[in-house]
Design brief:
Layout (H helix, E strand, L loop, with lengths): L30 E4 L15 E2 L1 H4 L5 E2 L6 H4 E6 L4 E5 L3 H13 L15 H9 L9
Antiparallel strand pairs: 1-4, 2-3, 4-5
Length: 137
Protein backbone atom coordinates (compact mmCIF):
# COMPACT_ATOMS: atom_id res chain seq x y z
CA UNK A 1 0.00 0.00 0.00
CA UNK A 2 1.76 3.14 -1.17
CA UNK A 3 0.57 6.32 0.46
CA UNK A 4 0.89 9.87 -0.78
CA UNK A 5 2.82 9.00 -3.92
CA UNK A 6 6.12 8.13 -2.22
CA UNK A 7 6.93 5.37 -4.69
CA UNK A 8 10.66 5.89 -4.96
CA UNK A 9 13.01 4.41 -2.34
CA UNK A 10 14.83 7.75 -2.35
CA UNK A 11 11.74 9.76 -1.30
CA UNK A 12 11.50 10.80 2.35
CA UNK A 13 8.19 9.04 3.06
CA UNK A 14 9.08 5.73 1.42
CA UNK A 15 10.32 3.94 4.56
CA UNK A 16 7.22 4.88 6.54
CA UNK A 17 4.82 3.06 4.21
CA UNK A 18 3.23 -0.36 4.41
CA UNK A 19 4.99 -2.69 2.00
CA UNK A 20 3.93 -6.10 3.32
CA UNK A 21 0.59 -7.48 4.47
CA UNK A 22 2.11 -8.46 7.83
CA UNK A 23 2.71 -4.79 8.62
CA UNK A 24 -1.05 -4.16 8.82
CA UNK A 25 -2.35 -4.52 12.35
CA UNK A 26 -5.89 -5.94 12.69
CA UNK A 27 -6.52 -6.47 8.94
CA UNK A 28 -10.18 -7.35 9.56
CA UNK A 29 -10.80 -3.78 10.78
CA UNK A 30 -8.61 -1.94 8.22
CA UNK A 31 -10.21 -1.00 4.90
CA UNK A 32 -8.26 -0.93 1.67
CA UNK A 33 -11.01 -0.23 -0.90
CA UNK A 34 -13.51 2.63 -0.60
CA UNK A 35 -16.41 3.22 -2.97
CA UNK A 36 -15.70 6.81 -3.90
CA UNK A 37 -17.97 9.44 -5.46
CA UNK A 38 -15.79 10.87 -8.20
CA UNK A 39 -17.71 13.92 -9.39
CA UNK A 40 -15.28 14.71 -12.22
CA UNK A 41 -16.34 11.64 -14.24
CA UNK A 42 -12.84 10.21 -13.90
CA UNK A 43 -10.65 9.08 -11.05
CA UNK A 44 -7.61 11.30 -11.10
CA UNK A 45 -5.59 9.45 -8.54
CA UNK A 46 -6.92 5.90 -8.53
CA UNK A 47 -7.27 5.98 -4.76
CA UNK A 48 -9.37 7.41 -1.96
CA UNK A 49 -7.74 10.22 -0.02
CA UNK A 50 -8.45 11.13 3.60
CA UNK A 51 -6.93 13.92 5.68
CA UNK A 52 -4.82 11.71 7.95
CA UNK A 53 -2.69 13.38 10.66
CA UNK A 54 0.56 11.91 9.34
CA UNK A 55 -0.04 13.76 6.08
CA UNK A 56 -1.70 17.00 7.21
CA UNK A 57 0.30 17.56 10.40
CA UNK A 58 -2.95 18.16 12.31
CA UNK A 59 -4.28 16.05 15.15
CA UNK A 60 -7.79 16.07 13.64
CA UNK A 61 -8.87 13.77 10.81
CA UNK A 62 -10.58 15.37 7.80
CA UNK A 63 -12.45 14.41 4.64
CA UNK A 64 -10.60 14.97 1.38
CA UNK A 65 -11.91 12.74 -1.37
CA UNK A 66 -15.67 12.13 -1.36
CA UNK A 67 -16.86 8.60 -0.72
CA UNK A 68 -20.04 7.39 -2.35
CA UNK A 69 -23.31 7.89 -0.54
CA UNK A 70 -25.26 5.51 -2.76
CA UNK A 71 -27.34 2.60 -1.55
CA UNK A 72 -29.34 4.67 0.96
CA UNK A 73 -26.56 6.98 2.19
CA UNK A 74 -24.07 4.10 2.31
CA UNK A 75 -20.77 3.04 0.75
CA UNK A 76 -19.08 -0.29 0.21
CA UNK A 77 -15.75 -0.79 1.99
CA UNK A 78 -13.32 -3.63 1.25
CA UNK A 79 -11.10 -4.70 4.13
CA UNK A 80 -7.52 -5.99 4.20
CA UNK A 81 -8.62 -9.50 5.22
CA UNK A 82 -10.80 -9.80 2.09
CA UNK A 83 -14.29 -9.17 3.48
CA UNK A 84 -16.50 -6.25 2.50
CA UNK A 85 -19.19 -4.27 4.26
CA UNK A 86 -21.85 -1.74 3.41
CA UNK A 87 -21.27 1.24 5.71
CA UNK A 88 -24.30 3.43 6.44
CA UNK A 89 -23.15 7.03 6.94
CA UNK A 90 -24.65 8.70 9.99
CA UNK A 91 -23.47 12.33 9.99
CA UNK A 92 -25.36 14.86 7.85
CA UNK A 93 -22.04 16.60 7.13
CA UNK A 94 -20.65 13.43 5.51
CA UNK A 95 -23.70 12.93 3.29
CA UNK A 96 -24.32 16.56 2.38
CA UNK A 97 -20.65 17.18 1.56
CA UNK A 98 -20.84 14.82 -1.42
CA UNK A 99 -23.95 16.60 -2.76
CA UNK A 100 -22.15 19.94 -2.31
CA UNK A 101 -19.07 18.72 -4.19
CA UNK A 102 -21.20 17.41 -7.05
CA UNK A 103 -23.00 20.75 -7.32
CA UNK A 104 -19.81 22.85 -7.30
CA UNK A 105 -17.87 20.63 -9.72
CA UNK A 106 -14.22 21.44 -10.17
CA UNK A 107 -10.94 19.62 -10.24
CA UNK A 108 -9.92 19.67 -6.59
CA UNK A 109 -11.95 18.90 -3.51
CA UNK A 110 -9.73 20.18 -0.73
CA UNK A 111 -9.79 19.00 2.86
CA UNK A 112 -12.75 19.68 5.14
CA UNK A 113 -13.07 18.98 8.83
CA UNK A 114 -16.48 18.01 10.17
CA UNK A 115 -18.01 20.27 12.81
CA UNK A 116 -18.38 19.19 16.43
CA UNK A 117 -21.15 16.65 16.81
CA UNK A 118 -20.63 15.42 13.22
CA UNK A 119 -17.54 13.23 13.68
CA UNK A 120 -18.97 9.71 13.99
CA UNK A 121 -18.21 8.90 10.33
CA UNK A 122 -14.71 10.41 10.18
CA UNK A 123 -13.85 8.67 13.47
CA UNK A 124 -14.97 5.35 11.97
CA UNK A 125 -12.79 5.91 8.91
CA UNK A 126 -9.84 7.03 11.05
CA UNK A 127 -10.10 3.86 13.13
CA UNK A 128 -10.01 1.74 9.96
CA UNK A 129 -7.09 3.59 8.32
CA UNK A 130 -4.48 0.87 7.71
CA UNK A 131 -1.43 3.05 8.13
CA UNK A 132 -0.27 3.92 11.65
CA UNK A 133 2.82 6.13 11.35
CA UNK A 134 2.12 8.34 14.37
CA UNK A 135 2.21 6.65 17.76
CA UNK A 136 -1.12 6.56 19.55
CA UNK A 137 -3.20 6.57 16.35
Amino acid sequence: MCLYGALSPSSSGYNTQIKAFGEITSPSTRYVFVESAETRNWNSSHHFVIGAPEYTGNTQWGWWGPMAVNHGDSSVLGFCDGHSEVRKWRDRFTIERVDKLIAQGGGSYGIEYPPDGQTMDINYMAKGWAYRHLKGN
